[in-house]
Amino acid sequence: MISKKLTPPLRLLADQALLNHLPIGHPARPRIEDDLGNYRSGFIGEQNLVYFLDLSDLGKKARFFYDLHPEGFQMDTLILAPTFISIIECKNYSGTLIFTSENGQIIRCIGDRRDGFANPLLQVGRHRKLLKRWLAACGNPPLPIETDVVIASPSTIIENQARSRRVQNHVFHAEQAPRKLRAMMEKHSRDRDYSLILQKIEEKLLQDHIAPFTDVLKKFSIYPSELLRGVQCPSCHRFTMQRIYAGWHCPSCNGKFKTAHEPMIKCAPQSKTGDALTILDTFFTNRCLLNHGSRQSSRFSQFFLF
């Protein structure tokens, strides 16, 4: 079952909202577009992984969490099964990935270009330690935790230069995920069954989830006065929308829409102090309530940006 579904990351939505309100020709646009491209690529990679995980045999036995952020760390995919936990780090790299050592930097080669990246095996290993610490702090038993790195694109070549068994066994393409999960189920089939406490762990994970927030105006050194005001028309893309009863009207193209505001609503999660910030909160005015059905959006329903 899906305990936390995959949704577009707030940073992706923030970048898109910022670009929508930034004049054409603004010097910050290329950097924002690059940042947006990176987050969009990552999200597409995670969508690819979700597709293959849906084909696994764990659907009715395990609980799947996507893009989970307990305080202090983040997991792309967490699978909570009766006899084990699986953490999967998803990377949507292209080209050829060279693992020169088990614990060293990886190199990506595309044509004549070579770029270095942090080793995702080390990253997912840190997540494992932090999750073990989190489980212990919540009074849970030490469930076995498996860690893997998934490469989303099937055309990406994984080159295990280090001849590492860890790379060989724990770095693989997304389409191999169902087979790997079946192997995990077999490996832990005789382990203690923790089915009775899975719901408790699930509820605590969701309770402690804090979606990350970045002040994109500050990050890209943009002043609120540089942005285009208002809600953008979905049809003609002008910022001339006028609020009408239960919707919006564009005097430029005479279009009428009920949800024209939604792309503008990008809210950070409530902090431990109960505060909440909107992505462009220094610029927009909060005036109305927005009625959403999802758990996350209902937490932010007091924010309406236009």
Automatic annotation (TrEMBL):
This is NERD domain-containing protein. Pfam families: NERD. Residues 41-154 form the NERD domain. It comes from Sporolactobacillus terrae. InterPro entries: NERD. PROSITE patterns: NERD.
